[in-house]
Amino acid sequence: MCSRKLAEIQLQLCTPALTAVVPEEQTPRMYLRVGPLGGEGMGSVLQHFKQSIVLSQVLDSSLHFGWNEVWDHRYSQSEIYNANAESQTLNVTKACRVQDFIPHEDRDVVVRGWCAGEDSAIARLDEVRTRMADCTGILDTEVDEMGRHRASAGTDISTHDFYGSMNFPDIARILTDLRAFSSNPLEITIAMEEADRAVIALLNLEAEEYTLLYSPQTQALDDLRVLSRSDVLLLGESSYGVLTHLLAPPGLTIVKGGGLGKFRNTSGFGRHVVYLDDYKAEDIELLRRSQLE
């Protein structure tokens, strides 16, 4: 025991004292959103800069707001939000503008994809972060993140089951409504067993306008997951359609029929169900509401 203790003492004496070097904590570079936030209240105005919150985090920066207007409710949203951030000045040694790295038309899709864990969006923002690594300050000149909408539509076409899918004229009519809603090109996904592009041509869609899912049975679940990611689903009362709807994120499902009751009590968590007989073009606004939830 004594020899062990002596050895420990000797080791302590022979070991040079190490002074812990604590790295100086650096203040994150400023991410300055220079556009107005709008005149809504504190809760609603958050919808106008959700993308800026995500991008500032991805780019390892501290979000600040540069618009200090006082609206009718007698306070400035910028002042309140900036009060929670450390006082900072934009370092313009090499200031970079977000829009030069993420084009306006890509922003919504990329940010939503990153939040949903999509590999392509994560890879895209990783690339942007690398390219902006030496930017000393970041400017975001987006005017209003709510000023545009994007939409994707998915449908399951069955040529064997009358109740299993929506009629082509109704699909075409709703796609027209969605194109008016979306300022970006409409993303269309079609699932079809025994796929036949000649049949799909009845929708007056060019081949490059849609993605066709027709995997073998062993990969049917993969097709189901892809179809379910659509903002708007156009379905009949097939069991496949119900499952697609139940897997879907917040959005809108338009259902032909309803007599079988398969979609009863399935609205919730931001996913809205509208039956085709009750559908009006104005119902597309439910999609905008779900995108804010």
From TrEMBL:
It comes from the Eukaryota. This is Uncharacterized protein. It comes from Favolaschia claudopus. The lineage of its organism: Eukaryota, Fungi, Dikarya, Basidiomycota, Agaricomycotina.
